[in-house]
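Dear Dr. H.,

I hope your travels went smoothly. While you were away I took the liberty of generating a structure for the chain from your last submission, since the lab meeting agenda had it listed for discussion. I wanted you to have the full record in hand beforehand rather than looking at slides cold. The sequence, exactly as received, is reproduced here:
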Amino acid sequence: MTDLEDEIEESLDDLEPTSDTAELYEHFRVVADKGQSLLRVDKFLFDHLEHSSRNRIQNAADAGMVMANGRPVKSNYKVKPLDVITVMMDRPRYNSDIEPEDIPLDIVYEDDCLLVVNKPAGLVVHPGCGNFHGTLVNAVAWHLRDNPDYDPNSPQVGLVHRIDKDTSGLLVVAKTPDAKTCLGKQFFDKTTKRAYQALVWGVPDPAEGTIESQITRNPKDRLQMAVSFDPEVGKHAVTHYTVLERFGYTSLVECRLETGRTHQIRVHMKHIGHPLFSDERYGGDQILKGTTYSKYRQFVQNCFETCPRQALHAKTLGFVHPKTGKEMFFNSELPADMQTLIDRWRDYVSSRDFEK
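The corresponding predicted structure, in token form, is as follows:
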């Protein structure tokens, strides 16, 4: 999804009908081809905004924000050849320039080519999707504010990969274009070494396995991703997992990534019946295994409060240094919330007669 499509998607989530006097701002424009056959405007925009939903587009039309040749139209308007279709909003497009912000960074390694950061849970990696300030990218821009060769708004430097807001762990940032190119190629060629640790519901069987599928946007909820086995739909994704420790109703699992798709581990583990513990978006914030006793329910609730986010940590990261050619490998400790969570489950198991 492009930055513009992402911004429009966010805007379509929070629409109010426009008044006759409201000032509108153009967010998206497309001109129909000369050979365009008659097509409903909601379907036309759905085809041009790849990850949007027809329901959101219809809501935008109902709110008077979809226009044909400068006039508001409803969802059933038929697009004709050379029609100019625009999506209008009641606020200007966001200025996406990245400004340095004084946000603490846990830097585990830095040289003239790159830095490796241990990101805390709760920190958004990159501006967008309603989080335009206070991100890791803003923090890096502040940290490198005195480096004349680092432009935080240049796509030739900066983040090489991303992790979710509520996932903690290691990320590498390129400080030079050569480093970005080299590191990006390693991620593309799947030669990097990335291992995550996650607490999941249940005990995966077999204890080691590989999950391979396509991952695509969930057509019913754009905030979720979903598994597909249609090779024409989504992007190829491969996750290798190993059960490290069993806690009766949950397990500590290591996940090693071949690919790095959006929500990959969260989607893949849910697909095999073991959602990440406390993962609200994928159903892991409910009691999925265990007893009906009130003491157990209270124990799990306390665990949710201990780690109120998906229990997932990017623990290790390995790559070849873009300048020296040396293999580099980094390991990070589990953050306090996940460590406390695991300790609680370990204590729970030790006080009961579970098969290890």
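Two observations you may find useful: Confidence is low (pLDDT under 50) at residues 1-21. The chain has three domains: 3-89, 107-188, 193-350.

With kind regards,
E. W.
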